[in-house]
Specification:
By secondary structure, the protein is α+β, with helices and mostly antiparallel strands. It contains five helices and three strands, in the order H-E-E-E-H-H-H-H.
Amino acid sequence: MDSNLKREIMLDNYQEPYHKGLIDDDSYCKVNTSSKSCIDNLDFIMKKNGDIIEDIRFDGEACVISTSVSSILIRKLIGKTTEEAINIITNYKNMIDEKEYDEDVLGELNAYDEIYKQPNRKNCALLPEIAIEKLLGELKDGDKNN
């Protein structure tokens, strides 16, 4: 992916993030994630219908990378089963950790394929994934939405 396209994807998803803004609904599970090395402090909420991710939303203060990853990852996961979501998340983590991954699964998340070149930004790229993975674990373990 061309570096200009990567930059455009990141900035578009930072300036107009998908599903930013929480809603007050008890049928959602909520987690917070924050960084010790950046301004990132984000809340994520998720709602499932059976095994399907019905909705994910986020809000808070975060850098371009955390905000844009949140936006893209949420868009990729809504409508997916838990298994499909875990596959996307696993491939994303592998890409960030410079391990083998399936780029066809990731779509726009491939814009972060060189984040390893900035080790201090790796945490920013992983925070949204960590929060969503926690939510999937909570819902999988018998939450009210599962």
